[in-house]
Request: fold
Amino acid sequence: MEGDKVPASPAPGGGPGGAQERLRALISACSGRLRGLKGAFLLLSCSAAAGVVLTFVFALAGSVLWSAVFCVLTAALLLLTNLWFRERVTSPILGLGDTARHIADGSYGALAERLRDDEIGELTDAINDMSVKIGRADRVQNEFISSISHELRTPLTAITGWSETLIADAPQEGDFRRGLEIISRESGRLTAMVEDLLEFTRMRDGRFTLSLEQVDVAELMEEVCFTYSKLLVKDGLALRWKPPRDRLPFVTADPRRLKQVVLNILDNAAKYGRSGRSIEVACVQEGEYVRISVRDHGPGIAAEDLPHVKERFYKGRGKERGSGIGLAVCDEIVARHSGKLKVENAPGGGALVTVLLPVETQ
Reply:
């Protein structure tokens, strides 16, 4: 009816209902702050601090018994806190560190087990998400490299073939022949890069295989050095092969892949050590390994580049630039032979590359 008064709504937050809402909001906020590791650690820290305070209060009040009781309880609480911290925080973080190292070493897509629903669990989810995305990106990269490499092979083969055909009919002297030789040489260099990239993608995709057999390394090295020395003559480089004094034991290896490694190392020595005019190759037994060493007398490897030369796609600061994949492929091949590939600067100058292959055990 007209003139009747409409009862006023209670003001927000007013009355008993508003007080209950505020209390529930406060409890919810506190429980949110106390949830997880930070809440548990806060409660344990406050309890330990309260125990210390009560110990001093009772000691000052002259109550030795209660002071001793709270002192023992506080010490026990601190001990349990340390054990809890090691179990709930330190150990899981160490496990996540191991997983992160596996990912950094190339195990893209490796996942850590999520043990609890707390901050460590959130960190585990973040690392797993990162690992999955890195693995996906790595697969896309490998597929792209493989696709581009296959597409490049056909035109490069045509360029190389036609340049060699034209060189055969070209005059012995003049810029025309010189230009054809440059085209042939550069197309050959590009072809080698493409083959390295294809080899790399085969390794990453698990399509790389070894045909293992017992190999006489000294015989293989002598053949490689004899062949390669003829190719270096026109560049004014001398290859000095030092055969072993004693007969070397056989190694279990894929001879084709082993030749690939040695030729790649010799290519690098010729490219980067050209100023030294000579390359020294030796092969000896060193304990349980057969050691192959290739040394040039060039400027050596810059100190900042040395730790990274075996990383894929890494290019140093030198004038000569390659694909950044050759030594990475060599390192992978040697590792699959259970061997070691070492790259260092030789005493007196130049670079020294060493391949260690385990001796065949009868």
